């Protein structure tokens, strides 16, 4: 299987890893140096490939259509989704002030970035 070095962004540490790919999909994530006390990776990184290929993975923006908890969703475009989020965040700032928002650098399963 082809291997490539990458930065795992399953958490905010960005571990250097080796990824195995098959058919353009990441199939395995491994530590570059798996010896104890060396460049190990967490279980989030190890299990990331199962999230990439999960059949229930959300690939497009969705907006709730029915009441909360009903499981009714409609697919919307990226511009519509981002405009809706921006509008909601602006309402929070208008009501509570800019100090009411913060950001987090954790990306979840979003990406394994290529490492040169």
**For the report, how would you describe the main beta sheet?**
4 strands, antiparallel
The overall pLDDT average reads: 83
CATH topology of the largest domain, by name, is N-terminal domain of TfIIb
Q: For this structure, what is the CATH homologous superfamily of the largest domain? A: ADC-like domains
Ordered list of secondary-structure elements with their pairings:
Elements lengths: L2 E6 L7 E7 L2 E7 L11 H10 L9 E3 L8 E3 L2 H19 L15 E3 L2
Antiparallel strand pairs: 1-2, 1-6, 2-3, 4-5
Give a structural overview.
The chain has 116 residues and is an alpha+beta fold. The chain starts with a strand and ends with a strand. The protein contains 2 helices and 6 strands, in the order E-E-E-H-E-E-H-E. It has helices at residues 43-52, 78-96; strands spanning 3-8, 16-22, 25-31, 62-64, 73-75, 112-114. The protein folds into 2 domains: 3-57 and 106-114, ADC-like domains (N-terminal domain of TfIIb); 62-98. Strands 3-2-1-6 form a 4-stranded antiparallel beta sheet. It has a two-stranded antiparallel sheet with strand order 4-5. It is extended, with a radius of gyration of 18 Å.
């Amino acid at each position: 299987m082809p291997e490539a070095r990458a930065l795992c962004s399953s958490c905010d540490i960005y571990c250097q890893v080796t990824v195995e790919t098959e058919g353009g999909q990441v199939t395995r994530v491994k530590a570059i140096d798996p010896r104890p006390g060396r460049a190990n990776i967490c279980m989030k990184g190890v299990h990331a490939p199962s999230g990439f290929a999960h059949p229930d993975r959300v690939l497009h923006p969705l907006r709730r259509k029915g009441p909360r908890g009903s499981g009714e969703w409609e697919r919307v475009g990226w511009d519509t989704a981002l405009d809706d989020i921006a509008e909601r965040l602006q309402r929070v700032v208008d009501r509570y002030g800019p100090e009411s928002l913060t950001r987090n650098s954790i990306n979840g399963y979003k990406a394994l970035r290529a490492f040169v």
